[in-house]
Amino acid sequence: MQKKEIKVGGIYNLKYYKDFTVPVRVVKIGTYKAIIEYVEKGTFEVKPVPNPAVFGAVKEAVPFNQILTEYA
Questions:
Q1: What is the pairing mode between strands 20-29 and 67-70?
Q2: Integer Cα distance of 7 and 52 in angstroms
Q3: Model pTM above 0.85
Q4: I want to staple 36 with a disulfide (CB 3.0 to 4.6 A). Which of 16, 24, 25, 29 is the partner?
Q5: Secondary structure in 3-state letters for the chain
Q6: Residue-level pLDDT at 55
Q7: Cα torsion angle, 55, 58, 64, 69, sign
């Protein structure tokens, strides 16, 4: 997606690994990256970042090209 199509508070599919996507909520939009938090499918409750290197964190910065589509 393009930066202008991404809205703060929106739920989007994030390309996580190869063909695997996870739902995320956009918290803030920066110049080159979006700050996102991972959410549970269905409930949209915030969950920790799945990357063990940032264990316990809930927010992560990702490039716009990793945000694929709006989560329906």
A1: unpaired
A2: 27
A3: no
A4: 24
A5: CCHHHCCCCCEEEEEEECCEEEEEEEEEECCCEEEEEEECCCCCCEECCCCHHHCCCCEEEEEHHHEEEECC
A6: 60
A7: positive
Query: What are the Cα distances from residue 51, in Å, to 17, 48, 58, 61?
Result: 11, 9, 10, 12
Token code pair at residue 38: 């991972």
16: its two tokens: 């996580």
- The residue type at 47: K
Phi, psi (rounded to 5 degrees) for 47: -130, 160
What is the residue whose two structure tokens read 């995320």?
24
C-alpha pair distances (Å), 56 with each of 38, 48, 50, 63? 12, 6, 9, 21
For the chain, which residues score pLDDT lower than 70? 51-56
pLDDT at 72: 76
Instruction: Report the alpha-carbon distance of residue 14 to residue 27 in Å, rounded.
Output: 14
